[in-house]
Design a protein that fits this description.
With 755 residues, this protein is of the alpha/beta class. The protein folds into five domains: 5-98, GIY-YIG endonuclease (3-Layer(aba) Sandwich); 109-194, no CATH class; 213-403, Rossmann fold (3-Layer(aba) Sandwich); 414-455 and 518-653, P-loop containing nucleotide triphosphate hydrolases (Rossmann fold); 664-749, Alpha-Beta Plaits (2-Layer Sandwich). Helix 11 (308-319) links the parallel strand 10 and strand 11 (325-328). Helix 1 packs across helix 2, helix 5 (149-157) crosses helix 6 and helix 17 runs parallel beside helix 18. It is globular. Bound molecules: adenosine-5'-diphosphate (ADP). Adenosine-5'-diphosphate (ADP) binds at residues 209-212, 215, 238, 240-246, 407, 576, 616.
């Protein structure tokens, strides 16, 4: 009798699913997790299809079905789409999806303690300051001799409850025995609870801020889009500080509210899920707190810094539909939401949505794909939308929702250029007179200034004054950067670092190494000279103490405890500093260099965003940009406050050159341990390119980073007309080539980095 064979995809680097026979008594469904033999091992994979058993092959059998919820059909399709579009194997995409194996099992259980009702009622909603007063008041409620000082400590400091005995004991500074003793007399109640606590359900009765008229119209538009229960994309295009977050909150509320699937089936998930993607460094406590305030509960967080326990908790709760609101970095897009109704991509222009390693994908573009498959809404939000999204909005493919102003009487900062040819900083300095004077003026008013320079460390180049040697990373084509705060020379490409040498490694001259150019540490040193009484701090990814210290520094800036903040791109994203009224850009030309066709766009976006930090509360803001190229279209448009001028100039160039969004790009990066062989391999690969209309191949060429971590690199750029299926073309091409062991060939569809 003909039966069906089962196709199983494994989370490993294989492009296709393997066929298995299904034992007679076993029932398997699409999307289920199953154990099956692969080679000598037994591995967990996912059922992706069924094929007719023609009895011509003897197949191995599936061993067992894992008792857990299956992946949805949408998710299977999304895995397949991601793999095909980005020219990677489906197995690797599945590996990205299966980011926590432990999440497939139920949460472990543990004994936890909560306060007896009598205390809970009395302590509820009291700030810790009032708690001891409350505790005194309830002393009468329990026999005095039983409420010993250590038990009082449990009431006062042991929470939040429920918690494990050890956690309560640690917070209260008592022994675990005291906790158990308190339970014996009924002060604490023991319960067996899941270690991975479920997420609280968002409170949809709460409302947001009072929106301005234009905000309300935008919010209503977005809400209606979500309520369509169908695929649609909106570009929320609002100037910095216009309240985009407040506006998309209303769409999120609508998505969470939906209680039925479009087909009317009501599963055990009784509400919609929403995902808000943000750039990883914008995932701050202050940002999360805004969600908590609006929806009454902490959203489920997802980012690369989550520990194993937090990861499995979020994954499991997302998959069973109980984590309703997730705020996360790009990889949150690959969480197995069964009932997703909305994805918001905040700061959609941000380059950090592109994953550059492993599965190379752009989360912004894949968010649109996911929504298309699962038939729901996407909101792309930005003050400086990518040209791709703008063109889609202008030709009607996306709804274009515009917020032209900041709410109330708050105005956008005025932006001026400082031509460094006319205003040369003093010898060895980097701040020009106009920048210094403007900073002085805001400090005199008791307001804050920010100096922006996207260069970590003290100086980007270390050179020997005697022989001209430049200090280079040992295995990578990248200069070592002096970090004076830590006394080290650091490679920013690979993280390699060494103690800052005192003599030149080439000519061995002592004290001959000199720092060339500015980094944030050096600008801070200079600022301390110009503004001796100011409280100056640096904000960069090198800030000692990690994420915690960074957050503390941002909070100090918010509270006005810093006068001048000197920052790298860390300061650009989504922060609100109410007392900041002046932004000085030390080097407006920095991102204009290099072979990136989007360099002008990136510069424009970054400078609008950084200037947009100024004047976000009631005081007007101002920005000055130091530049050698005031005539450059991106800078001229900034100074004129005329975005359209920049966009139309940039679009005209892109159209003429057939660059995105008027054409498609793909990059091929070949790398290997031998310089010549890598070059030959790249040439050979080009010679294998299938003939096709509308395709142009450039290269191979040596990229700016010709060697990375000891491997030599070559790049090929492929340019295609918009009608070409570039992914399919690249796949065909790739299948013609054999890549020897130790050599690698990566395909990058729509590259964002050209290094
Ligand atoms: P964007 O995301 O567009 O930069 P945000 O949503 O972060 O803007 O809003 C900027 C600031 O303005 C925030 O502090 C926000 O709370 C405040 N804000 C926005 N809209 C309103 C409003 N209608 N009333 C009061 N404050 C508002």
């Amino acid at each position: 009798m003909a039966s069906e064979n089962v196709q199983v995809l494994f989370p490993v680097n294989v492009p296709v699913a393997f066929d298995y026979a299904c034992p007679p008594q076993m029932r398997v469904q699409l999307g289920e997790f199953v154990f099956a033999p692969i080679g000598k091992q037994v591995k967990l994979g996912v059922v992706t299809g069924f094929v007719e058993n023609d009895n011509t092959r003897s197949l191995k059998e599936i061993i067992s079905v894992k008792a857990t919820r299956a992946l949805s059909l949408d998710m299977l399709q999304f895995i397949d789409w991601t793999a095909r579009y980005n020219c990677v194997s489906a197995g690797l995409v599945l590996r990205m999806v299966m980011s926590s194996y432990k999440a497939l099992d139920p949460s472990p259980m543990v004994t936890q303690f909560r306060l007896a009702d009598i205390f809970r009622e009395n302590l509820q909603d009291q700030s810790s300051k009032d708690k001891s007063v409350q505790v005194q008041a309830i002393e009468g409620l329990i026999k005095a001799q039983k409420l010993t000082p250590s038990r009082l400590l449990i009431l006062d400091k042991g929470g939040p409850f429920p918690a494990r005995a050890s956690e309560i004991a640690q917070r209260a500074g008592v022994s675990a025995g005291v906790v158990r003793g308190f339970e014996k007399i009924g002060g604490l109640i023991a319960e067996t609870l899941p270690v991975d606590a479920p997420f609280d359900v968002p409170n949809l009765n709460l409302t947001g801020l009072n929106l301005s008229d234009s905000q309300r119209r935008a919010a209503e538009n977005l809400r209606l889009q979500v309520a369509k229960h169908d695929f649609n994309v909106s570009l929320l295009d609002g100037v910095t500080g216009s309240g985009k977050t407040e506006v998309y909150f209303e769409a999120v509320a609508e998505a969470l509210k939906l209680s039925e699937n479009p087909d009317g089936k009501l599963g055990e998930m009784s509400g919609g899920q929403a995902l808000v993607l943000v750039p990883e460094i914008a995932l701050t406590q202050a940002g999360m707190a805004r969600f908590a305030k609006r929806f009454g509960v902490e959203p489920a967080p997802w980012h690369s810094g989550l520990g194993e326990a937090a990861r499995r908790r979020v994954w499991r709760e997302v998959q069973n539909g109980r984590a309703r609101l997730v705020v996360g970095a790009r990889s949150a897009l690959y969480l197995p939401f069964p009932n997703l109704r909305l994805i918001v991509v905040d700061e959609e222009h941000d380059t950090s949505y592109k994953q550059e390693e492993g599965v190379i994908y752009n989360a912004r573009d894949m968010a649109v794909v996911r929504a298309m498959i699962a038939k729901h809404s996407v909101i792309l939000a930005s003050a400086t939308p990518s040209l791709e999204s703008l063109v889609n909005a202008r030709n009607g493919r996306y709804a274009h929702i515009i917020l032209p102003e900041r709410p109330g009487a708050i105005t956008l900062p005025e932006i001026d250029l400082v031509d460094l040819k006319d205003h040369k900083p003093a010898k060895g300095d980097f701040l020009s007179d106009p920048l210094i004077k403007a900073t002085q003026a805001v400090l005199a008013k008791g307001e804050q200034a920010m100096l922006y320079l996207n260069r970590r460390g003290y100086a980007p180049l270390i050179i020997c004054q005697n022989c001209g040697e430049k200090l280079k990373s040992p295995d990578t084509d990248s200069w070592l950067v002096e970090h004076r705060a830590t006394g080290r020379a650091v490679c920013h490409m690979t993280g390699f670092s060494m103690r800052m040498p005192t003599m030149c490694p080439n000519c061995k001259t002592e004290d001959s190494l000199t720092a060339i150019g500015p980094g944030v540490e050096r600008v801070a040193e200079e600022a301390a000279r110009h503004f001796p009484n100011a409280r100056i701090e640096i904000l960069s990814s090198d800030t000692a103490g990690g994420a915690e210290a960074l957050r503390a520094r941002m909070s100090r800036m918010e509270r006005g405890e810093i006068d001048i903040l000197i920052g790298t791109q860390m300061v650009v994203k989504g922060h609100n500093f109410p007392h900041l009224t002046f932004v000085g850009v030390v080097d407006g030309d920095l991102s204009l260099v290099g072979g990136d066709p989007r360099a002008g766009e990136r510069t424009y976006q970054t400078l609008v965003q950084v200037a947009g930090r100024a004047g976000r509360a009631d005081k007007p803001g101002r920005a000055l940009i130091q530049t050698h190229q005031p005539e450059h279209e991106a800078l001229a448009a900034l100074a004129a406050g005329d975005r359209e001028m920049f966009i139309s100039a940039e679009l005209a160039i892109r159209e003429m050159l057939g660059l995105p969004p008027f054409g498609k790009l793909a990059a091929v990066i070949l790398s290997g341990p031998d310089y010549k062989k890598t070059e030959n391999l790249a040439k050979k690969f080009v010679s294998l390119a299938p003939r096709a209309d509308g395709i142009e191949i450039h290269g191979p060429s040596e990229p700016p980073i010709g060697r990375l971590r000891g491997l030599f690199r070559r790049r090929i750029l492929v340019q295609a007309e918009t009608g070409v299926n570039l992914s399919q073309y690249m796949k065909n091409w790739r299948s013609r080539a054999k890549v020897p062991a130790k050599y690698k060939l990566h395909i990058d569809i729509d590259p964002q980095s050209f290094l």
